[in-house]
Amino acid sequence: MQRIVVINVKGGCGKTTISTNLASYYACKGKKTALYDYDPQASSMRWVSVRRRGEKSPEIFNVAAFREPRRVTKSWQLKLPPDTERIIVDTPPSLKGLDLIDQVKGANVILIPVLPSSIDMFATADFVRDLLLGAKTRSNNIRIAIIANRIKKNTNSLAALERFLNTLNIPVIAHLRDAQSYIQATEKGLGVHELEFQKNDEDSVHWASIYNWLENIE
Ligand SMILES: Nc1ncnc2c1ncn2[C@@H]1O[C@H](COP(=O)(O)OP(=O)(O)OP(=O)(O)O)[C@@H](O)[C@H]1O
Ligand SMILES: [Mg+2]
After folding, report:
1. Cα–Cα distance, 47 to 17 (Å, whole number)
2. Of 24-33, 64-73, 118-127, 208-217, the least confident
């Protein structure tokens, strides 16, 4: 079972969008998938309940993890279907210190969404430093990757983001475009790759590259 935590202290960088799209991507690939929502805003929970109204979408098991008392994880982990293959964890913004360490405990993979804006880049630089120091990712064998989100091609902000990402020394596994289809998919409880009319080849390539990176790590 692989546990993938989508996290960044910065609000609004795409944690929920990436968590829900990844969960639907795995579910569509036939993997038994669970989506944990640690954010009391419950956006991922809402997305799953909209999804269940649709008839054809492959099932995703969901857990309102934010309701569980801190550090008491065993009881709800037992509720997971026993053959669960992938757990995607959506996290709240602004985590620091012990809360941050708690959140990544037990992760196999940490995915960090970053937006092309200076505010987001500064916040992410601090976050990455806290994460590398606090969570002992190397000794705990946790793999980390960045997903650049809401990218607009040929812009100065993209060039600045690329320069920033080069300094982090963490693999950048995808550049997701800034597109209405992400907003529409979220409203329907779907991933962008499940949208019938707005399906875009570029999105498919990016999601396939995220999936391939995740499936090929040791
Ligand atoms: N690639 C994208 N293209 C267009 N809109 C996007 C994209 N990614 C995210 N958004 C939009 O940006 C907003 C913030 O995204 P999202 O809720 O996923 O961020 P978040 O990190 O989970 O936020 P929070 O910190 O509040 O939990 C949402 O309205 C979402 O629909
Ligand atoms: Mg969110």
Report:
1. 10
2. 64-73
Domain edges within the chain: 2-216
Q: What pLDDT does residue 48 have? A: 98
The tokens describing 133, both together, are 């120091």
- β-partners of residue 177 are 151
Q: What does DSSP assign to residue 85?
A: -
Distance CA 31, CA 60 (A): 10
**Ligand 1 neighbour 149 (Cβ under 6 A):** yes
Q: Contact at 8 Å (CB) between 192 and 207?
A: yes
Q: Are 60 and 27 in contact (CB under 8 A)?
A: yes
| Maximum CA extent, the chain | 49
Pocket-testing residue among 6, 10, 16, 103, ligand 1, by greatest number of atoms within 8 A of Cβ? 16
* 79-88: pLDDT as tens digits: 788 899 999 9
Question: Residue with the nearest Cα to atom 16 of ligand 1?
Answer: 14
| Pocket of ligand 1 contains residue 203 by CB under 6 Å | no
175 lines ligand 1 (CB under 6 A): no
Sign of CA dihedral 162, 168, 174, 177: negative
Residue 188 carries which side chain, given as an amino acid letter? K
Is the CB of 15 inside a 6 Å radius of any atom of ligand 1? Answer: yes
- The CATH number for 2-216, chosen from 3.40.50.300, 1.20.950.20, 3.40.50.1000, 3.40.462.10, is 3.40.50.300
For ligand 1, say whether the CB of 25 is within 6 Å of any of its atoms: no
